[in-house]
Fold this sequence. Notes:
Blueprint: H1 12-16, H2 19-23, E1 24-30, E2 35-44, H3 49-60, E3 67-78, H4 80-96, E4 99-103, H5 107-115, E5 123-125, H6 128-132
Parallel strand pairs: 2-3, 3-4, 4-5
Antiparallel strand pairs: 1-2
Helix pairs in contact: 3-4
Amino acid sequence: MQHAQESSAEPPSARRGTEADDQITVSSRTEGPGRFVVEVGGEVDMLTSPRLRAAVLEHLAAEGAELIVLALDGVSFLGTSGLAVLIEVREAAHAAGVELRLACTGRRVLRPLSIAGLVPLFDIHDTVEKALEDT
Length: 135
């Protein structure tokens, strides 16, 4: 009778615990009083979109928040959950009286927005610098 040998490698469940964190990066910086840039990279899908949502909502709740720019050129995949989060944070920004702008030229973001008919809902700029300019 043969016995199964135990492996010293991590079980699959342990490896999956950090999978979502490895698929997205979200960082933010302040660009003056009440002005924030949230840079997003990687995949925005149903596993990772809550992290994007939390980052944006945190800045919306900041004292004196006036403008949030989402820098999306580092996004490699934007799924339907990511689109839903963009709509959600747009509505939350509007309700809070905070302007939300997107900085993006990448097809991986603009195409899903276009296919879903969402481009007209957002103030989209080519660069973060242009998005930060007063209009």
